[in-house]
Every structure is written in C-alpha cells, then in structure tokens.
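Journal club prep — side note

Before the paper discussion, L.F. wants everyone to see what a predicted structure for a comparable chain looks like in token form. Sequence:
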Amino acid sequence: MRIVVAPDSFKGSLSAPDAAEAMARGIARVFPEACIERIPIADGGEGTVEALVAGGKGVLRHSRVHDPLGRDVDACWGLVDNGNTAVIEMAAASGLPLLAPEELDPRRASTAGTGELVREALEAGASRIILGIGGSATNDGGAGFAQALGARFLDAKGRAIPPGGAGLRELEHIDLSGLVPRLQEVSIQVACDVDNPLLGPRGASAVYGPQKGADAAMVEELDAHLARFAEIAVRSTGKHDVPHIPGAGAAGGLGAGLLFFTGATLRPGVELVLEVSRFAERARGADLVFTGEGKTDFQTAYGKAPVGVAKAAKAGGVRTVVCLSGGLGEGAEAVLREGIDALASITPGPMSLDDCMRNGAALLEEAAFRSCLLLASGRRLP
C-alpha cells in the first residue's frame, strides 16, 4: 500500500513537515507495511519556504537584509530543485510580524528587504523564483523592492525619494536603466490569492491598509500616492493595464510593482506549491492521501491547500482523500464537494485551545490512527 501525507501547517502548533510526520506515525501503527510519502504543503504564505525545502530536500539559506523600517533582520529563504528554484516569503523581510503594534506605519514601511532577498537568489544562480507575498507591512507599490534591485525613484530635483508609501508623493521619474539585468532573465512566479486591483475602494490601501496601521485619512492619502506611482510607472514601462490586473493590489501594491518591473506572473499559491513539490507526479497511483490544516471551514473550499491537494490527487487517480483538521468551522462540509472524501477534527472531545495547540502532534497522530482503523475496517466489509 502506498499512502501520501500532504498537510498544510497547523498554524501556531505544527509546521507542515511536523504535521506530516505526526500523520505518518499514526498511519504506520495501523498499516506498518505501507510506503508513506511525505509531501508538506503550503498555500504560498507563511510556512511555504519550510514546506517546500522539507518536501523537496532542498536547503535553507539565511540572509541579512532590511526589515520594513530599514533595520537589519535575518531572513530565511530556500533553494530547491538542485538550486535552480529559490523560494522566498516576503513576510520574512517585509512582513507584519517584524514590527511591534506601535511601529505599524505603511507611510514609512518599505519592501526593500524583499528586493534584497530576490537579489540574493539571483546571485545564488536560481533560474526560477517562487515569491509568496502574503503578510506584508508595506504599501509602497513595490518601490522599495525595485530600488533594492537597481531602479531609481526620483523627485523633481533628481533626488531619491524617501522609503515607504508616503515617499511616493514626491515621485516624478523612475529610472530603470540600473535594474539588475538577470531580473529579466529568470522566471518569477508570485503566489497571490487575492484579486484586488491597485487602486480604489477594493485597492491595496483601502482593503489592507487598516491592518497595517492606516486610519481613514491615511488610507485616502496612501491611495493617492499609489495613483501617482501607477501613473509614472505606466509612463516608464508602457504597461497600461497593470493597475487593473487582479492581484495588483496584493501586498500593498507589490503585486503591481512586480508586474511593472519584472516579467512576473501571479498565480494561486497552492497551485504553485503543488507544482514545485511535484505533487501530481509523486502522488499518482497512491492508494490513499491524507491532508489537513489548522481549521477547515467554508473558506477551505475556495482553493485553500487541502482542496488543492484533493483535486490534484483525484486528477492523478487517487480514490480516497482524508482531511484531518485542528477544528471544523461553519461550512466545512463544502470541502466534500471538492474532492475530499472524509473530514474529521483531531480533537477527541472538549479541550481548551491552549491544550489543542500544545498537544497538536499527539492529537494529529491519534486522529490519523483512528482514521486508519476505520479505513481498515471498511476494507473488510463485504
């Protein structure tokens, strides 16, 4: 028997690789002779680097770059596919978790650190870059990102504009002549699961600005600055459609910056992760697939990791997909129409959230064990 375990992380409790190991232990107690393939999964956000490096037997790298406010920070990224593919999470350099609540200020926060990580990947020889852009603290349209890679953002007197969303109000000219040449040669694929345009009531500033510290007045100010940025970026690149492309507003407009200044493409995060981990190839013909996540509810059906796993597994001929979750929320049963055949919570009875988080590995192992007992019993039915 061949079984694939492909869970997402159980956020706050287990990483995706740790969840895969816990599932495998429980399965082996019922099916000790089974060949168990571990393929940790992520959706392009937090945990993507760890999952892909573990699942693809890659290597982790650490680079000293700048955080959203320009301070030094140690950021982790990865190389997989024999060093040909770099995996980067922008949150490692430009993310909300790097700032204390009182430091949140999208007027000052810059994406420069993310650009520095991409430069590191280019210098390491990567020919493909997977960039997850969730969890940003920024609203600068990717100006800092481009500056870190050699572009110049200048005011009316030819001086470099200040970093952050507020600095864009002084922008008069973008000089792309110094952009790192290899940036145009590599494939940059961006894990992006939102469809917001750059500007307006569904744009970067209005939708995501408040969670980064922006009040109503600041949202209006930031949107106006991004409009100026877009006007000048269109003039500099000739890419008139970028501000309106779904996903351009992701990560405070970094989605737009990537489209303006690189040959990047925006793709659903779990689709990218499954592709890089070679999930379809590795799961093809398996007897059973286990997946899971911290909480399954109606949102999971809209393309989150477990449903992505289930659809890919079914396309490869797998007959049974089981999802084990830390908790089941409203509408969780919707996933049963999306390729998942069985769904269960890992908690055996009433427990506090702290206890669940603290004992996640043991609970997940036991849930996998119980599920396999049921599956073994089903196989014996006439």
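L.F.'s comment for the group: The chain is about 35% helix and 15% strand. Keep this in mind when we get to the figures.
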